[in-house]
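Lab notebook page, bench 4
Experiment: in silico fold of construct C2
Operator: M.H.
Input chain length: 373 residues
Purpose: comparison with the prior construct
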Amino acid sequence: MPVLNKIVIRDFRNIELQELEFSPNINCIWGGNGEGKTNLLDAIYYLSMTKSGIQASDKFNFRHGCGSFALSGLYDLPAENGVRFSIQVSEGAEKKVRRGDKPYARVSEHIGVLPIVMVSPADSGLVSESGDERRRFANSFISQMDRQYLSGLQQYNRLLAQRNSALKGQNPDGGLLDAFDEAMAAHAECIFNARARFADELLPVVARYYEAISGGKEKISIAYRSDMHGSALPELMAAHRDRDLALRYTTAGIQRDDFIFTLGDYPIRRCGSQGQQKSFLVALKFAQYEIMKLRRESPPMLLLDDLFDKLDMDRVANLLQMVAGNDFGQIFISDTDKGRTEVLIDRITSDRAYFKASAGTFTKIDGKLQDQA
């Protein structure tokens, strides 16, 4: 399993320059709202996924007045220790990702090297927003375990962009569109099958975690919806050709896939309370952690940002006990309540580190958090 020993952050959000050393087990970041706790966790996520788990565009990750940011992490990996990964992002320039001193030929080669799961308030978009958010979650999840899926997804999206460009031209050539459809078909089939397996594997694990959080009062379900149910891509595209030509973009395909989350017989986005939605989202992410742990035969890093929001302390403690067994991976948890955090963490392990966040600066705390009030 990967363990982040040290991180160096420069000009990322409200963090000007920070170097921190972490515990290989549980790390707790305490501080008020807006002090930078989420920014630190997102910097760790960025080092794994080469993008933010919260902001869609890198322009929102630059510290105010800066045109670049840099992240560097020193990791222990299963086969080697002391491996440095670094990312340099500059406005108007290509993103640079390195392992040691060697840059990756393609940024995507880094995905899955440092497996990670993040639970944050931003997850609410998985319930409340469009299918884009749920596809993004599925893509991030599956890509960390299946490099063929990531490659197929990239190829499909590249061809889709070219097909849409052709549709926007004057008098699109039917033969060219047929060629795009055939080229996209194999990638679409691979993506469709992987997403179907993903939904089937995810549901029972999410249901188990949701029952642990909610006390088994409601039944949840996850259904995979795709245009490709019962149709191969070329036939599907042919059936929608006239509509594509009229609207000048591709109206069918796996880019329209969605995952439907239900509570009882109703969409959770419409009938679920804030507490029920939060419980479902936490169950979803903890299920991701468990599945990745089993599939990779080692636990990913786990980032828990503001986990107590809308969940009581006993339920959070029960969740952490479920994932924090003898072989749990490195965990980072943020909270605004220092006393509550210490009680929870010390119940799990004595091997932990505490950090106080203040205006983008982080101080490692020796001793009790209560002593730092």
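Observations: Residues 175 and 181 are 10 Å apart (CA to CA). The longest helix spans residues 174-214.
Next step: discuss at group meeting.
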